[in-house]
Amino acid sequence: MPESSEAPVEVTVTLTGDLHARPAGALSVAVAKFEAAVELIVGANQVNAKSVLAVMQLGASSGQQVTVRAVGPDAGAAVAKVIGILTEATKVGD
Amino acid sequence: MAANVGIVLVSHSAPLAEGTAELAGQVGGGSVTIATAGGTDDGRIGTSLVKIQRAVRLADAGAGVLILPDLGSSVLTVRALLAEPEDLPAQIVMADAPFVEGAVAAAVTAAAGGDLEAVLDAAQEARHARKL
After folding, report:
1. What confidence tens digit (pLDDT) does each residue in B44-92 have?
2. Which of A13, A23, A25, B59 has minimal CB crowding within 10 Å?
3. Are A34 and A70 in contact (CB under 8 A)?
4. Which CATH topology does B9-127 take?
């Protein structure tokens, strides 16, 4: 199913806490295990989620919307994983 | 699961190396061995070939070792070590990267199971990462 697998999967979430260094690291470590190319989009900034420094550079903070967009065979699972990390890890606000 | 690439942080200052290792380890999620070689053998600011050798042995889990030096003579001391490869892991490389950002990027890539080349690339790409 190469055609359907190349359709981008996109989900947007509103952060309930700031995206600090530790969740950024957890996010990049998790994303690296997927084949899909995963991007985080905050406002006009769009970064490769596999690059922890780029994710930190977003400076995404509580109340901001983050869009997770993935393309690839496991795009759906990758987006679900990232949304899970964004919603859980930013709750604790470390 | 295969072993992860190990990381050695070489700094003129032991607290700088240890603090950077702590930070990178936490961002990487704690599943990577980050060994430090900070300061001289008698605890002053400087570098120690013996400390670096010891750190390399600690960091080596069989998947290769990335060495990240801070400044100046750290690079020279690592070069001196790499010039005598007999007692070193088969895969060992020095990264040309900013110390904190390079350590964090390398730790995350190593934690994700990246090979030595991927970890080296991640560290060296940190040079282009903007902070603001």
Report:
1. 999 999 999 999 999 999 999 999 999 999 999 999 999 998 889 999 9
2. A13
3. yes
4. Rossmann fold (3.40.50)
| Burial class of residue A20 in the structure, from the number of CB atoms within 10 Å of its CB (0-12 exposed, 13-18 middle, 19+ buried) | middle
Distance CA A76, CA A49 (A): 15
Q: What is the pTM of this model?
A: 0.92
Residue of A53, A55, A57, A88 best to disrupt the B interface, most CBs of B under 10 A: A53
Q: Is the pLDDT of residue B132 over 90?
A: no
Write down the domain spans for chain A: 2-92
Q: What is the pLDDT of residue A93?
A: 47
- Note whether A52 contacts B: Cβ–Cβ < 8 A: yes
The fold adopted by the segment(s) A2-92 is: Histidine-containing Protein; Chain: A; (3.30.1340)
Yes or no, beta carbons of B114 and A32 under 8 Å apart: yes
Divide the 94 residues of chain A into consecutive groups of 10 and give the mean pLDDT of each group. Answer: 71 94 95 96 96 95 96 97 91 55
A24 touching B, CB under 8 A? yes
